[in-house]
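STRUCTURE:
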């Protein structure tokens, strides 16, 4: 904080934090502030985020439209905390669009995805498609000799570069646009000479885009235009 003040820097953009429970000792009142994502729980400041609820909803739209009915969800406790449980909430909400016999409880890892636990869950639930949030799960399906999409469909909720190159279907969260939105939140405070913790923090949501790959049956994606929205911070 002293270095920033000495250099005349009045705006601070806080990236996603690793330890979500650790309090950060910082003179918040002296700076214009914003953060990216939900991982900074305290203090409550304005933030720019991917629209995680809409992302899961879009994934479920795509799967249901293509005839998938037993749709599983793979995630972890840490990832759910990082997205404010919005992926899990949207998944559970969309389960009611399916017959009761086809509803599957999500597979929630403590941390990283594990091959044996994934294999047991697949054998017990027999999904015809997976919506995935975690790194490494697509690779684990390959290790388990499951053919995608012939034996199981696969959607990733935050496509990394290597899975885009591999033509995996899923959501591009458009992180460059999310980051630009967070910068705009800081800049707007600087323009109005505002600083410190806001009385009414806002969350700016950026809806991602569907990436059509080769990991689902069917070729016609559900049409929807990306939307930028602003909502009150929960």
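SEQUENCE:
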């Amino acid at each position: 904080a002293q270095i920033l003040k000495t250099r005349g820097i009045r705006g601070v953009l806080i990236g996603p934090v690793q330890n979500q429970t650790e309090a950060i000792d910082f003179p918040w009142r002296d700076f214009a502030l914003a953060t990216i994502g939900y991982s900074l729980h305290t203090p409550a400041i304005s933030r720019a985020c991917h629209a995680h609820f809409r992302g899961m909803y879009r994934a479920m739209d795509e799967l249901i439209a293509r005839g998938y009915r037993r749709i599983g969800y793979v995630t972890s406790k840490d990832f759910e905390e990082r997205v404010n449980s919005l992926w899990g909430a949207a998944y559970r909400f969309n389960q009611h669009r399916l017959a009761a016999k086809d509803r599957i409880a999500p597979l929630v890892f403590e941390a990283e995805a594990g091959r044996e636990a994934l294999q047991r869950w697949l054998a017990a639930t027999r999904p015809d498609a997976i919506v995935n949030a975690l790194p490494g799960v697509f690779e684990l399906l390959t290790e388990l000799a499951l053919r995608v999409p012939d034996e199981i469909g696969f959607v990733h909720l935050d496509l990394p570069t290597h899975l885009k190159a591999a033509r995996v279907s899923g959501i591009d969260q458009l992180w460059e646009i999310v980051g630009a939105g967070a910068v705009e939140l800081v800049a707007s405070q600087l323009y109005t000479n505002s600083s410190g913790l806001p009385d009414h923090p806002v969350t700016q949501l950026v809806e991602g885009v569907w990436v059509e790959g080769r990991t689902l049956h069917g070729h016609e994606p559900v049409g929807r235009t990306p939307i930028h929205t602003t909502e009150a911070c929960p």
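REMARK: Confidence is low (pLDDT under 50) at residues 224-234.
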